[in-house]
Prior knowledge:
Belongs to the barstar family. By secondary structure, this protein is an alpha/beta fold. 40% of the residues lie in helices and 17% in strands. It has a 3-stranded parallel β-sheet. Helix 3 crosses helix 4 (76-86). The longest helix is centred in the N-terminal third of the chain and has 12 residues, at 17-28.
Amino acid sequence: MDMREVFTIDGRRFSSMAGFYDEVERVFTFGLDRKIGRNLNAFNDILRGGFGRHEYGQPIHIQWLAYEKSVRNLGKENMGTIVEIILDTDHSGHDCTLERL
């Protein structure tokens, strides 16, 4: 059985890309004294690990609560890009699965 660490992005906590980055920082770097970049390249880097709560290359599972709200708030294009990054469609070097709730 795949034992991935689970991270939960809560779409109820934000309604803009700035809020999304705040949520990513809250979820993936909790308790660390550092800020992440406010762009999707930095988000991709965070998913690889080694900067926050999981180790570099560690497989993770992302649960996205209120996913449809995020689609409405961030737009289909932005969410499509975010999902592509999470699922690593360009093989940039992380191993993430996504559950849309």
